[in-house]
Amino acid sequence: MGSTCIITDSSAQFTSPGFVNNQGLKILPHKISYSQDRSEPQVELKVVDFPRHVSSKFSPHIEAPCEEEVFTCLERNLAVYDDIFMILLSKEISPLYDRAEKASNTLHGHANLHLIDSQNMSLGLGLIVQYAVELINKKMPPIEIEKSLRLIIPHVYTLLCTPNLSYLQAAGMLDVGQAEIGEMLSLSPLFLIEEGMLNPLQKVKNHRSAVDYFIEFVDEFEKLKHVSVIQPSHGSIPEMRMLHQHIDEFFSTCSYSEYPINPYLASMIGPRGFGIVVMEEL
Questions:
Q1: What does the pLDDT look like over 154-166, one tens digit per residue?
Q2: How is the beta sheet containing 224-231 ordered, strand by strand?
Q3: Computed from CA positions of residues 232, 233, 235, 241, in that sequence, does the dihedral angle turn out positive or negative?
Q4: Which domains occur in the chain, in start order?
Q5: Which of 39, 51, 80, 273 is 20 to 30 A from residue 247's alpha carbon, by CA?
């Protein structure tokens, strides 16, 4: 097998410590601005600095890598590697995949380009990218790696929940009336990323109800490979311990991990958003 690299984007979170330093991994960065004035300099903020509500002073806007950035990244790597796996967040959430597809249609180089829509983001995207590295390390032929990735993608599920409804409204996932009424009633919507789109499931009143739903969801599977939890900060949702205990008891071979929400996802669902990512065992 020849030289191989993976290109992904900065919405991805990884469960393996130090994975981001993998030499064969290239990351296209998203830009996030927090002012309505897009001409202001970009400021990197930690999630802890995010306010509870979107306002005229703080209005997150995520900008995907532009066509020129994508073109340059591909042009540079097509001349170096034999195979490139470009695994990106859902094209239903971001225009990045379409920009990559456009660039790939105009570029020709030494490498074979495998452009893949992960139909996911955050830890879901990260798990798929890590799975690709596992397959590469096993020296599988590139065509078989692509087949395996397309097979696993429908078996990675992300459930999200948030009380920060103004962020959902700013991201275009709720209208103003839904956001205002939901916050007045202290309701938190649950979403499932399905075929790359955020689909609303139901609304819950508290963390306990959300975690109960997560447990019911994982019980729908016979075998799980991995479950990852996203929280505002480490241990900030004590009720997640019930999920961890449930996984240990009923899915003894399943690995489990917890991570703080990253700025990309927090800009979409708010700093108090949380959820789980499930990878099914095939």
A1: 999 999 998 888 8
A2: 197-204, 188-194, 156-161, 274-280, 224-231, 255-260
A3: positive
A4: 4-151 (3.40.50.10170), 156-280 (3.30.1180.10)
A5: 273
